[in-house]
Design a protein that fits this description.
Layout: E1 13-16, H1 20-31, E2 37-40, H2 44-63, H3 69-77, E3 79-81, E4 96-99, H4 105-118, E5 124-127, H5 134-139, H6 151-157, E6 160-165, E7 174-179, H7 185-197, E8 201-205, H8 213-229, H9 235-246, H10 252-259, H11 261-275, H12 284-291
Helix pairs in contact: 1-2, 2-3, 8-10, 8-11
This protein binds 3-hydroxybutanoyl-coenzyme A (3HC).
3-hydroxybutanoyl-coenzyme A (3HC) is lined by residues 57, 60, 130, 166-168, 170-172, 213-214, 249-250, 255, 259, 263.
Pathway: Lipid metabolism; fatty acid beta-oxidation
Keywords: NAD, Oxidoreductase
Domain 3-hydroxyacyl-CoA dehydrogenase NAD binding: 13-207
Length: 306
């Protein structure tokens, strides 16, 4: 049965976090969905890096003839930076915010409690979490005095949804849509419609640790690390086997470096703790590498040197 997309109604988007994911989300929103974006990060240094990446990608598109100079200027002009000192007050007018900070439940809970207090009552609060429970994040939007069972409590939490983009966001065609126990159908429909406007195909997952994507990807990456740890093959042979034997664009160790080993470990811990299933136990080597500060591409060293 054909389904009709509801209008997303996002006239202005907030993006929280100017790391590789947040920057990519800001770019596709400004370029494909053509919405003005307010980009917030508590670190001005991070914002600078994010905007430099946006400029580089837009220059590449102009160089390849996919955008004219004027179109690139328009896209860039749609991305505005919220000064760090404004805090979330600077996001007050947005119709949806997509949070893309690091994978830390407490951090996300604090952020969502503040967002729910600062944003318009009808604004959608989306998280780009890779594995953390959307239901827990939604519960955190209620202040101490609001009962989750009250009409007010249900209304506030119903605006929270998982909108999981993939890295690099401008290239990867998927968004995973995750409904918390509290999410309303209207929130889901609008979030889906926005992801489609960004040029993405949407799949839906229940709110289980890692959703569909990372519940399948992370054990695969972890198993590759365990193969390396046990000396079954070299890093190159493990990666080449998967690249040439299975046509994966990157081998699993290269992919782990690309995602970030700290992110991989955080997701694996969420999977392990959330399911108590030993198949998700992170490898000791991964834990050690993160302890050493070898986080993959972003730190210059992971399974490979960069
Ligand atoms: N940001 C934006 N664009 C990028 C990019 C980046 N960081 N890195 C590469 N690209 C673009 C290039 O500019 C190029 O675009 P063009 O075709 O328009 O010129 C295109 O991607 C191809 O790049 P290259 O030719 O330089 O290199 P490759 O052909 O090797 O492709 C890749 C690079 C797209 C990253 C490819 O290796 C790939 O698809 N790798 C797997 C990525 C993947 O699996 N991502 C999902 C990770 S899991 C995740 O994000 C979930 C989270 O919860 C953990």
């Amino acid at each position: 049965m054909a389904s009709t997309l509801v209008p997303h109604g996002i006239r202005r988007l907030g993006v929280l976090g100017a790391g590789q994911m947040g920057t990519g989300i800001a770019l596709v929103s400004a370029m494909r969905a053509k919405v003005p974006v307010l980009l917030y990060d508590k670190s001005p240094e991070q914002v600078k890096k994010g905007l430099a990446l946006v400029d580089k990608l837009l220059d590449k598109d102009v160089g390849k003839g996919r955008l004219t100079n004027d179109e690139a200027k328009d896209v860039r002009g749609r991305i505005e930076v919220v000064p760090a000192e404004s805090g979330f007050k600077g996001l007050r007018d947005v119709d949806m915010v997509v949070e893309a900070v690091s994978e830390n439940l407490q951090l996300k809970e604090t952020i969502f409690a503040s967002l729910a207090a600062e944003l318009k009552p009808e604004a959608i609060l989306a998280t780009n979490t890779s594995s953390i429970s959307i239901t827990k994040i939604a519960a955190a939007t209620l202040g101490k005095n609001v009962s989750p069972a009250s009409e007010e409590g249900k209304r506030i939490a119903s605006r929270v949804v998982g909108l999981h983009f993939f890295n690099p966001v401008p290239v990867m065609k998927l968004v995973e849509l995750i409904s918390a126990l509290q999410t309303s159908q209207e929130t889901l429909d609008r979030a889906r419609s926005f992801a489609v406007a960004c040029g993405k195909t949407v799949t839906v997952s229940k709110d289980v640790p890692g959703f569909v994507s990372n519940a399948l990807l992370m054990p695969f990456i972890n198993e590759a690390i365990m193969h390396l740890e046990k000396g079954i093959a070299t890093r190159e042979d493990i990666d080449t086997t998967l690249k040439l034997g299975m046509n994966h664009p990157m081998g699993p160790l290269q992919l782990a470096d690309f995602i970030g080993l700290d992110t991989c470990l955080a997701i694996q811990k969420t999977l392990y703790e959330g399911t108590s299933d030993s198949k998700y136990r992170p490898s000791i080597l991964l834990e050690q590498m993160v302890n050493a500060g070898w986080l993959g591409r972003k730190s210059g060293k992971g399974f490979y040197d960069y």
